[in-house]
Specification:
Four copies of one chain form a homotetramer.
Chain A: H1 16-41, H2 48-55, H3 62-65, H4 69-92, H5 97-114, H6 116-126, H7 133-156, H8 162-183, H9 189-201
Helix pairs in contact in A: 1-2, 1-4, 1-6, 4-5, 4-7, 5-9, 7-8
Chain A binds a DNA duplex (21 and 21 nucleotides) through residues 7-15, 18-19, 22-23, 26, 47-49, 57-64, 68-69.
Chain lengths: 207, 207, 207, 207
DNA sequence: TATGAATGAGCCTTCATTCAT
DNA sequence: CATGAATGAAGGCTCATTCAT
């Protein structure tokens, strides 16, 4: 409440701004809770009522913010993909190809570790055909755009088959993450990361 | 009809062997049907009655062969893992490390293409935490054993960090497959395969 | 603005009359909106929030004027029944029995055409046992009083069985309306009206 | 079980015929129960679980026989309309117009009294716009065909405006039924019936 | 007086599983 | 060994109603 607040009277309706704020916060809370549970228990394993309880709200409230459970998932996916896109945008501006690759590896794992639930969801959605198409499309577009970026990078670096090169690089990142998430703390993530960077730093590419 | 089915006479009750044969065939049919549907629609998206209908049997019969849907999944996974283990066993007997790696890449993709439903299930189960633990354990053991084998291979080849090396090689295989299954026919699988083999054939390893 | 809204001064608090006026108007608006929707979508098919939105007010406000959805329905029904009662009162004062019947037929259809939503609600409520008892009681009393009036009319006209005669006349009116509302524009309402009047005008009654 | 029964063994599956019989009986039971409750409490007021409990079966069983609650309603309506159609077919074969009308009145009320729940449903569905379209269409077709039949009858009897005449006759029947169902035992149904027949028996039509 | 976010009971529906035959 | 009718718990979703502002 600041001095501009013109709405102090006890029985006046809240202002538009107040409502917007409340809405934004509730939406956020619900999405957060849902992401957590989708990651931990899978889309089907996380019921709407569980999500609500976990978020500390009533079951019905979700439907005030999302048309359906499907819609909730899609919102989460879209939001996540957008966030990552922003991260990645920063990396693409790095001039030196060598450094750019190294930074990409670093950043990818850093993001992944910071936002494991989202990546869990990523693999979850990718591999489950009975999940909302919208969510899959978002990821599909994300992957395509990643590959396009990588391809340009490898082309720029003068690789003979930049497309295949991009696919392999992408496979390493996703593959490592996948195994890491499945295996857990026993996975030697640091060493693997180091080795990847090393492989991609000698001259232009692994030979 | 194999040698075990020596039919005594038309009016004799079925022999133990005949029963066993019928059982084995029914089990097989059901597992086949389930694998198909699990792959196409996901574990939750494939109902028991769908599986039964697809297999041409009654719902009840399934419970004659499998304690539960969970049990059915576990049986499929175990069987699949075993089959692959046999394939891989053959490869490990190849003397020349170079050739062994090339063969491993070749074989992996060949198997994958021949048995897409199973690999679809593989990723499906790996990334869905609300699936029967037993199935996940089977895959977990499979992965561990794969990594152990790869590690030995790279150690033998004199790599400085065989563990990380194995992880990366495994990541490439799984990553490529994952992307291939998600993206579909637009994926340049042949070129990627060639590049992988190339990378791993020069001297002992990519540098 | 009618004579009641004599505004004292711009800065004076609103007078009691002004408040009452606002209340009356809001009540009216909400009832109007609800009647429309009840008619178009049925009692259960029209949600409170739909009604509020359609009336241009908030959900909460409705509960300021009506204790519940049930209460709202009852208010609408009571109001409608009262209005019709007034119309009908005028007719009863017509001296000539012949003319009175003709006028009754004319008026009934005229009112019905002018206020279709209300008559839709009328039939709706009559035939839906799970609707608020209060609403049904209002209609019940209305029907009883209609029948009483008709009975007196036919008795006065010297019919042998005025009660049955009243029931049949009432049945014709309600039956025609019911069919008209269900069938819509294909219904030959004018011809039917003419024939009814004709039947009831020759001598005292149809024979 | 008769002598033809070839299926006495304890653990043989039921024959096709046995299953058909079971199915037919369950379907019937559920439809009966639903009709009762739809009539007594309205479509919305009768929940699927209530219907199931009333039928003495589990909630889920309904979905073994009907795609949805909507589908159940439509099945009931179609079945009812067909049954009435058969009744009415008999009447249309009566030669003498006078007698035919009398019989039609008699029969209509007889059927109605014998099958009140269905007629309750009839009015219920007719006047509730938020009910499955399929059910309404069935009734719509039924009404149309009734009117067509009546029109032919009145045309044959040489009435000047058979269409309007049919509408009025139909209105009387539906109107009386409607009021009878709403008012209950206080309604002088017998006298009304007598008067209707009387009105329509003098010469060809009421005058 | 007016707002709309929040609640939670209750509804329709699905589906793994059981069981009489 | 084989059938499919029957069960009932659980899930997604709607909506009348309340309440803080």
């Amino acid at each position: 409440m600041n001095v501009h607040s013109i709405n102090k009277s006890k029985d006046m309706p809240r202002t538009r701004e107040q409502f917007d704020e409340i809405r934004a916060k509730s939406r956020e809370t619900i999405m957060q809770s849902a992401l957590e549970l989708f990651a931990r228990r899978g889309y089907h394993g996380a019921s709407v009522s569980m999500i609500a309880k976990n978020a500390g709200v009533s079951t019905g409230l979700m439907y005030n913010y999302f048309k359906s459970k499907t819609d909730l998932l899609e919102a989460i996916v879209k939001h996540g993909v957008m966030t990552i896109g922003e991260y990645m945008g920063d990396i693409e501006s790095i001039e030196d190809p060598q450094e750019r690759i190294a930074e990409m590896v670093e950043k990818t794992f850093q993001i992944a570790l910071e936002d494991m639930p989202f990546w869990s969801l990523y693999f979850n959605v990718m591999m489950q055909p009975d999940l909302p198409e919208g969510a899959q499309r978002s990821f599909s577009e994300f992957i395509q755009s990643m590959f396009t970026g990588l391809e340009m990078m490898f082309a720029e670096a003068g690789m003979p088959d930049p497309e295949a090169e991009a696919k392999i690089f992408g496979a390493i990142l996703d593959g490592v993450l996948l195994h890491y998430m499945f295996i857990g703390k026993d996975y030697p993530l640091e060493n693997v990361k180091k080795l990847i960077i090393e492989k991609y730093s000698d001259r232009q590419s692994p030979k």
